[in-house]
Amino acid sequence: MVTDVTDEVRCGGRPGGGSRLGTAPEADTGLDQELPELVVPPGRSRAVREALRVRRVRPDAGWEAFEPQRAHPANSRSFAQVHRRWGCRPLFLEAARNGERVGQWLVFRTRGRWNPLRTALFAFGAPQVRDDAPDLREAVFVAAVEWLVRRIRPQNLSVQSIALARGLSQSALAAAGFQHREKYWSYVNPTGDQEFLLSKFGSNHRINTRKALKLGYTWRSDVTPDEYLRLSRETYAAPESGGPSAELVRRIHGQMVPAGAAVISGAGVDGALRAASIVLFAGRTGYYLHGASTRAKDRNAATYLHFENMRWLHGRGVAEYDFGGAKVGDGHSDKALSISEFKRKFGGTLVEAWGGTWR
Questions:
Q1: What region does 355 belong to: left with phi over 0, alpha with psi -120 to 50, or beta?
Q2: CA-atom Rg of the chain in angstroms
Q3: Rounded distance between C-alpha atoms, residue 289 and residue 7, angstroms
């Protein structure tokens, strides 16, 4: 059973696609969608932006130490290294006010899809801001976009959905000049101990988890890339139908896992791996990036896997478990809606966020 519909975005590739290196990622940003005109309030918001100073910094200049509780794996150095390759380089941006750093943002730079002589930019989510300055998120985002447009003159800038652009609003995207904007959804669960989690679960997930505990299912945090990829190939019969590339899994295992920013976990019984996942985490946030399972449906393994993921993250101070993209409303396949329903039954909160593309 597939339990994940999160798109993979490769440097120089499309979400879930196999574009060659050296082309810009193409986000599904609803290009034909009719969007209302938004009026961005003048005055104070612009004055705040103008008081911010944005610059490019080295990632070893206290990057990981910046407000660690607000950190997100999509803003970590190890995440940047996973996506660093020929034709794609990370840009570490810092925003300061009165000489004091208040925000930072990881953006990737690659070659333009339509014009290789032009630069394309993309980010996996919103800027990170200090705990005591949440009201500056929009100003930091707009100031950083203005800096990128002025200094780099990109062909386009795309904010992808991997981190659901947490904290960004439609008005923030409009203020930054994003012509195409799209709403994303995700179920976000609190982490906790066994009884707390089971109290949040829907009845079927609670029954399946208790059954897995009774039948002796085990959970591991040391699944190897080869083990994960074997299960992923079973989940996605054709390579082009989805799932992460072998290169991405090996990079995460070799760079993010040792850095304490990811875990490749699995659940099974009698020594057989039945379900596995790749989870990125930083600060208070754990993010379910990819999942795989046997073709034979094993609801016990699937629910038990996420149950133990949340318990393991709770023990490391991670407060929330983001299940990634959810499909809400009409116009989606039965399979996609079934996966979203599976995520919903863990009892989390449906969160709305925005992403889009500037051109």
A1: beta
A2: 20
A3: 8
Distance CA 83, CA 91 (A): 12
Of 176, 185, 186, 158, nearest to 9 (Cα)?
A: 158
- The residue whose two tokens read 């960004």 is 168
Enter the DSSP assignment of 39: P
- Indicate the pairing of strand 156-159 with strand 218-220: unpaired
Q: Could you give the CA distance from residue 197 to residue 203 in angstroms, rounded to a whole number? A: 12
Instruction: Tell me the whole-structure pTM to 2 decimals.
Output: 0.84
- C-beta of residue 354 within 8 angstroms of C-beta of residue 169: yes
The DSSP secondary structure of 77-101, one letter per residue, reads: HHHHHHH-BTTEEEEEEEEEETTEE
Give the C-alpha distances (Å, rounded to integers) separating 165 from 141, 206, 317: 11, 31, 22
Distance of CA 208 to the CA centre of its chain: 27
Q: Are 58 and 120 in contact (CB under 8 A)?
A: no
Q: Provide CB contacts within 8 A for 260, sequence distance 6+.
A: none
Token digits for 293? 């399972």
Of all helices (H) and strands (E), which one includes residue 59?
none
User: In residues, how long is the chain?
Assistant: 359
Q: What is the pLDDT of residues 157-204, one digit of tens each?
A: 998 766 554 668 888 888 899 988 888 888 999 999 999 999 999 999
